[in-house]
Structure formats: C-alpha cells, structure tokens
Amino acid sequence: MELQRLGPIGQEIPAACIDGVCFDLRPLTADIDSDFFAAGGIERVAAALDAGELTPLAGADEMRIGAPLTRPSSIVCVGMNYAAHAAEAGAEPPEQPVVFFKMPSTIAGPTDPIELPPEATKVDWEVELGVVIGTRTYRVASAGDALDHVAGYVLANDLSERRLQIEESGGQWSKGKNLPGFTPLGPWIRPAAEVDPGDLRLRSWVNGEVRQDSSTSDLIFSVAEVIHRLSQVMAFEPGDVILTGTPEGVAMSGKYPYLSDGDVVELELDGLGRHRQVVTVTG
Asked: Rounded to whole angstroms, how far apart are CA atoms 232 and 172?
C-alpha cells in the first residue's frame, strides 16, 4: 500500500494506491497528518480497502503528486550517518547521532521545482530514508522496541545550502537547511510492515549522472538505534519525520559542482519510489 496526497498545492487529496489504482481516502480522513497517524490511520485504511469500502479517485493519474504527509510537529535529521560520507567531509564517524532540525515549511512534493534565491550558491542534494513516526515516542526501552513506533517510510531529499550551513552558520547547521522547499518527500509513504529499513538501496543523479549509490546497510546508526537514542532526550509525536542521513557522493565532497539553474535532480530508494526536481533560480 502506498499513501499519497494528490492535487494542487494546498488542495491535496489523501489517497491509498495499490497496483496502480488510487483510492480516495476522504471518507476516512481529511488529510494525512498527525491526527491521521495518531488515530491508527494506516490500519483503518487497510481495513477499509479489504472491505471494499473505498472508491477509486477520478483523474488520479493526471494530478500533481504532493508530499505524502503534512504538518508534522517536527522534522529531526541525523547528519554524518554513513561512514563514507563522514570521510568525504573530512570527519571521523560520530560516536553519537549528530542532530539538526528542519522546519515543516521546507516540505515539498517529489516533483516540485527546487526554487532558489540568487544568494543560494552552494546547494547540495542528499538522498535519504525518512521515517514517519506512528505513536508518541519517548524514552523507548531499547533499539529492539524502537521500530514498533514507526508508521512507515518515505524517500526524502535533504537539500542543503552549504555556504549558509558551514561558512555563515554561527556553529549550527540549520541555517543552511531551512529554505522553503528544502525537504521534498514522496511520492508515497509505505507502511512499516512492508519495509526492511536495514538493507535498502538509495541513489541520486544530477542531469542523468550518478552521484550517490549506497545502501542503508552502511548506516552508522541503524533506524532502530536512531529512534532509541534520540527518544531518550526528545519526544516524537505521530506524524513526525526523522531523516536518517545521506551516503557519500554529494557536492560538498568537491567531486561535483553545486546545483545551478536548470539542473535536474533525481532520487530513488528501493520500494519508496523516485523524485525528479528541476532547479530554478528565482528573483
């Protein structure tokens, strides 16, 4: 099952897609948001589909694909979580998860343009596995219990403006992470029961050339470890998103140029779909 939100920005319709057919979820929920997850939305959708209670969404194939969730209370990100990426950045693998935050206003759809102000001169791509929290998560007893709190998984692009992140950061990364649209998500959320987060291939391309090609098996801190460790010091609410880090192959390595006007960024993650974003410099 694939949870999606389809339609114009601000008017997205919640849908569940199976074998290419998208079913309208409005009889069950107004949107895919924190209330949806808190109320056991995935289980309710599965039951309604099994009972044949939902109808296909007319014109779904022609609709814009929006981000598959909206209004999380937080987007918590883990940096330097692949050993090879830490090495290309000239850093030692961290002993504890490196954490920064992104604002909900950074969320965009998987094919929305990447709109940059002229001063954004060092914009980088980062393909990542995103985790969607399903139940309130605080002080989880062990990593073995952590995945019980996951509703599903989503493909994310953790876009980063490296000049703001590093050169004008004031010691914090978030300044370079929070331009509007800097967290494209989608095209869908796949329920946790259908995904093994420990061995997923994830890739990125710029203008058709491969940039990143790795697996979540190379994570320094696994998804379960990230949730367990972070939950000791922060509480996650239903619908919150955790981004788990990006592998090597980013522009910050010096191997590739930063993004510029007209570039096409593509991402892919096993079972979680594909992004295609065109860079547009505005203003």
From this structure: 22
Alpha-carbon gap, residue 127 to 158, rounded angstroms? 7
Residues 126/159, Cβ–Cβ less than 8 Å: yes
Q: Which two tokens stand for residue 210?
A: 């491969």
In a 10 Å sphere around its CB, with 0-12 CB exposed, 13-18 middle and 19+ buried, how is residue 115 labelled? middle
* Interacting residues of 276 by C-beta distance below 8 A, sequence separation 6+: 110, 111, 264, 265, 266
Report the sign of the C-alpha dihedral through residues 275, 203, 74, 26, in that order. positive
Quick check: 135 and 164 in contact, CB under 8 A?
no
Q: Is the Cβ–Cβ distance between 122 and 161 less than 8 Å?
A: yes
**pLDDT mean by block of 10 residues, the chain; 283 residues:** 98 97 98 98 98 97 98 96 79 89 97 95 98 98 97 98 88 90 98 97 98 96 98 98 97 96 98 98 86
Judge contact between 201 and 215, C-beta under 8 A.
yes
